[in-house]
Amino acid sequence: MKLLNKTLSILKIIFPTTKFEVLIFLFFVVLYGANAWFIAENFRIVYDDRIPWDAYFSFDNRAIVQTGGGFERHPLSNYFFDFIRDFALWMSGNHYNSVFRLVLSLFSTVVIALANVSVFKYLNNIIKLPLKISLLILAFYGLFVTNILLSFTPETYTYTLLFLSIFNYYSAKKIKEEKSVSFAATIFGSVFIGGLTITNIVKVYIPFLFEKKIFWNWKKIGMAVAKIATSVVVFVFLFLLRLDFNFQNFLNKTEEQYDKFSKPKITPLWDMITSWFFGGNVLFSNYEIRDYHTKDKTFYYKALFMDVYTSAIPYFFIGLILLIVILSVVKNYKNKLIWILVISFSIDILIHCVLKFGLHTSYIYGGHFVFVYPLLLGWLFFSYRNKTISLSILYGVIMMMTVYLGFNNFYSLGEFYQFLETYYQ
């Protein structure tokens, strides 16, 4: 009976449980699903066996679907994608056709819709915002570039966004109830989150820092260390199993990848950070088409990338978002749940903006951190709950930003369709 109750409580965290959450889930499934269906049915961009990498915005769909990606960055992702690929092949009659692409895309649609439900649960159950504010934030967040692109893209980032959104909601719920993250949640969080992108494993352990009076209780410290140590042992064992216990190969590949993805680019550092790291995950910028080919030069294709912003309005828009983030932290600096989000976000800032790993294509990394924006915005609304005028102004600002975001991103999505019609029919 106890096991059944635990299972039900886990399912309630992952899936919609109220009628309103079901409606939100179905809304996003229909919205994203229509786009995913159109792209998968009519174009070969989602999966083409001839294209090894970077067909659009540097997503490596084929490599991820076939192998789970490089083990040095995605150590356990092959276990996830073996199942997804085999299921898609079974549905398509063992053919890499439009049905295969459609299954992959609809998996992504459902995953991003569930991730959005997790964000709504956090806004509604943790921050306890009024429904109209939660829905406005969710509408704003639902239009982000990351959500639009990942809703039809079979990538590690798609599933990372779901797992991180769920884990943040779960850990916030535990901390609010003054309970600790369980052994099972720590292990599964490490395997699922760290397994898809190795650097994200650190984010699973952040909530332990904010358990009630943990630094004044040796028993609590010991229990936290035991949970973390156990999860690390399980993770390392599964990782080494994939490597056939050849750890030196991992070190060599990691150094190779860092050298490859951290070289300075012609674009100024500040513009890469603004346009691609902070902005590219939210607001589409202009596109750049490049000529690509396979290593043996037997197949040539066009690849689409994001350029930096070219007008003042996008920079102003991203500046407003950064102001909201900073203001939310300042207004809620005594709130431990805020600092979980801040530390989590800081890890990505360190990796991409300071160490410059993948900064030139950091608009693809939104699945690692973009959910932080709506949650911090939610906490900012919470801080103004007793100030009617400030609350109304903030609500009006977010509404205008949502309208602009929608127009900009749907227009850019139309340009993306034109690219597909020209090169990927």
Automatic annotation (TrEMBL):
Tree of life domain: Bacteria
Any Pfam family matching the protein: DUF6080
TM regions (residue ranges): 20-40, 99-119, 131-150, 184-206, 221-241, 309-330, 337-357, 363-382, 389-407
Record has Hydrolase as a keyword: no
InterPro entries recorded: DUF6080 (IPR045726)
Entry keywords, A to Z: Membrane, Transmembrane, Transmembrane helix
The protein's name in its UniProt record: Glycosyltransferase RgtA/B/C/D-like domain-containing protein
Keyword set includes Membrane: yes
Organism lineage: Bacteria, Pseudomonadati, Bacteroidota, Flavobacteriia, Flavobacteriales
